[in-house]
Amino acid sequence: MKEWFNKIPVEEMISWRRHIHENPELSYKEYNTAAFVEEKLRSFGNIEIVKPTETSVLGILRGAKEGKTILLRADMDALPMQEESDVPFKSKVEGVAHTCGHDIHTAMLLATAKVLSELKDSLHGTVKFIFQHAEELNPGGSQSIIDSGVINDIDAAVGLHIIPNLECGSIHVRPVGAATTAADGFFLNIQGKGSHGSMPQNGIDPIIVGTQIINQLQTVISRYTTPGELAVITVGEFKAGDAPNIIPDKAYMSASIRTINDETREKVEKRVKEIIDNTCKTYGATYDLDYQRAYAAVINDKTVSELVMDSAREVLGESMVKEAPLTSASEDFSNYRQIAPICFVQLGGGTAADGCGFANHHPKFNIKEESMISGVKTEVQTVLNFLK
Fold first, then answer.
1. Active-site residue 135, yes or no?
2. For residue 374, is pLDDT > 90?
3. Which residues form the Peptidase M20 dimerisation domain (predicted)?
4. CA 83 – CA 89 distance, rounded (Å)
5. Going from the N-terminus, what domains does the chain have, and what CATH number goes with each?
6. Pick from 117, 208, 371, 383: CA 20 to 30 A from residue 171's CA?
7. Closest CA to 374 of 3, 60, 8, 7
8. Which of 313, 318, 107, 276 is nearest to 187 (CA)?
9. 68 φ, ψ to 5°?
10. pLDDT digits (tens, 9 = 90+) for 303-338
11. Cβ of 318: how many Cβ atoms within 10 Å?
């Protein structure tokens, strides 16, 4: 047992989590949450406060001696959905809920900051705690924090995410390479020419155009990406027409696209655009395409990931630390790789047997709060080992 274990403010951390959970705020509107975080950081002492944006907070803890700089990140925004869990600290805000766990991330990072603030005299280097806004909404809050310049001196960045259906308090890390996928997509309006169904020769059928595009898109993954490499195209919307005997004049579709490396991401985007353009020209239709790039894949650095895993083993034991599989989720934590090597960590929040069987973004999302202690232990020990 480490001497600093008894410095972890477990009861306070749980109360912070519950306060934030009851008072969720959407992306770019985290004013009260940011004010709450700032108040707590100031109360710990030894921590400088910087506001990179209106609704984000950066705490800076400078150790007694010079050394490297590490960034720990927690996101703070909630989701636009109604909570359906039966916890006594349920969201008080209609249609807004912390069903992804950002309240948990924030509370854990506050607890980590409190512990480390009390260890200031033994630190060789600097710890930056970024409480980030707007992870849930493209383009994401991380880029504006990077653009502010306040963290451009960091040597590594670590982000931690709670995941239900993993053993309570366990740590899961992708040792190297893609830990998540890039999340892109498109929104397409196809303009054809309406006609009566009995006179198809007078129209340009956007339904035919759309179905041909969808069929062609299936070849992008099977013929333009490396076999075995994760890549997905999902057309989730296709809308056209409202009568059985009328050829409509327009159709609409939208799609989600997932890839894990920059080269494939570029190839897929290029090919998707070619298919849409060529197919519309073939049938005489025109189109309006909004192709959106969202978050790049999170690429874990081998050295930082090994440090995190070794640190977690040191405080939790060998059996509680596992290699994580690649997940097809996406995260704007990926942007921090622009300035330093990164590691994205998954924290087990409890399994279905613990009553935690609902995934992130589910209206009944919930976790076992004791799992948060493992998160704080891992974050603190990672900092101590990195700054040795």
1. yes
2. yes
3. 185-282
4. 11
5. 3-179+298-386 (3.40.630.10), 182-295 (3.30.70.360)
6. 117
7. 8
8. 276
9. -75, 175
10. 999 999 999 999 999 999 999 999 888 999 999 999
11. 9
* Each residue's pLDDT tens digit, 194-230: 999 999 999 999 999 999 999 999 999 999 999 989 9
Stated pTM of the model: 0.93
- Residue 23 contacts residue 32 (beta carbons within 8 Å): yes
> What does the block give as tokens for 339?
């300035």
Strand partners, 173: 323, 345
Out of 25, 83, 103, 135, pick the active-site residue: 135
Whether 155 is catalytic = no
Structure tokens at 239: 């809308």
At position 26, the amino acid (one-letter code) is L
Instruction: Judge contact between 345 and 158, C-beta under 8 A.
Output: yes
Residues 276, 201, 281: CA angle, nearest 5 degrees: 20
C-alpha distance from residue 51 to each of 68, 239, 329 (Å) = 22, 44, 29
3-state secondary structure the chain: CCHHHHHCCHHHHHHHHHHHHHCCCCCCCCHHHHHHHHHHHHHHCCEEEECCCCCCEEEEEECCEEEEEEEEEEECCCECCCCCCCCCCCCCCCCCECCCCHHHHHHHHHHHHHHHHCCHHHCEEEEEEEEECCCCCCCCCHHHHHHHCCCCCCCEEEEEEEECCECCCCEEECCCEECCCEEEEEEEEEECECEECCCHHHCECHHHHHHHHHHHHHHHHHHHCCCCCCCEEEEEEEEECCCCCEECCEEEEEEEEEECCHHHHHHHHHHHHHHHHHHHHHHCCEEEEEEEEEECCCEECHHHHHHHHHHHHHHHCHHHEEECCCCCCCCHHHHHHHCCCEEEEEEECECHHHCCCCCCCCCCCCCCCCHHHHHHHHHHHHHHHHCC
- Tokens linked to 223: 């013929």
Over residues 15-31, mean pLDDT = 98
Alpha-carbon distance 217 to 233, whole Å? Answer: 8
364 Cβ neighbours under 8 A, 6+ residues apart: 84, 85, 358
CA distance 344 to 178: 10
- Cα 253 to chain center, whole Å? 25
Distance CA 360, CA 363 (A): 9
Given the residues 77, 184, 249, 332, select the one marked as catalytic: 77
